[in-house]
Amino acid sequence: MKLVSFLWVVAVSTCLEFSMAQTVTQSQRQISVQEAQTVTLECTYDTSDSYYYLFWYKQPSSREMIFIIQQESFNPQTAPQNRYSVNFQKAAKSINLMISDSQLEDAAMYFCAYNKKLCASSGTGNYGLIFGKGTKLSVTPNITHPDPAVYQLRSPKSSITSVCLFTDFKSSDNQPDISNSKVLSTDATVLTMKTMDSKSNGVLAWSDTKNFICNDTFKDMNFYSSSESLCDAKLVEESFETDMNLNFQNLFVIGLRILLLKVTGFNLLMTLRLWSR
């Protein structure tokens, strides 16, 4: 019994040493790419094995791990998967992920992983994944026709509540440094308008101070503001008027539909009475 326990301890120690021999390194902690350009994410690994599998995973902001592509050590190169491809160099122990035609939804954390048996002497199925620390990919939107503008919105219920919306500025513009503790702001967000096939950058800033003005808060920004760019929800609501001719046409169409239903019902009733005779 003691001999069996001793052999088990030796086997476990061998397995641990064997599993610790493999390492995965991702030297790029963060990388940025312009939209529609190609980006390469680097990954190296250390192993003494001849047969193994390598993987790339994507982790978006929703936190789930999404499988992208895999590479077997006994294959020279894996075929591209959509916009994803790998540059596998077995001798150099590297597998770089290339993303072509980068899209905004490509922004995520990317993990390189190594798959090998945890213990050479164990049975089948004892496999584990060894991950790198990950690379964060940021995609800068391609704003083709920037037209910077600022809009100041005031709440109809409170005269002191005000929000500034800055939009249509280039991605390369520096974001303002708001030192006023009474003013809050968001990071730049990409607004995608699919119906117009265009994109826009946007930043929101707001405050409940009475004298909050957009231009005073963002003095260094190359935006413009005027009285014409003010947006008041109450004024918009009051200025909205319905078209009387359009309302009359809608009522007329509804009346015709009701009349058609009555005629159809009468004809159906008369047909049933004739058949019953």
Automatic annotation (TrEMBL):
Q: Quick one: signal sequence residues?
A: 1-21
Q: Which Pfam families match?
A: DUF1968 (PF09291), V-set (PF07686)
User: What are the Ig-like domain coordinates in residue numbering?
Assistant: 22-112
A GO biological process this protein is involved in? Answer: response to bacterium
Task: Please give an example of a GO cellular component term from this record.
Answer: plasma membrane
Gene3D superfamilies referenced in this protein's UniProt entry, alphabetically: Immunoglobulins
Instruction: Give the residue spans that cross the bilayer.
Output: 251-275
Q: Which InterPro entries match?
A: Ig-like_dom, Ig-like_dom_sf, Ig-like_fold, Ig_sub, Ig_V-set, TCR_alpha_C, TCR_complex_component
Q: What protein is this chain from?
A: Uncharacterized protein LOC102818564
Q: Which gene encodes it?
A: LOC102818564
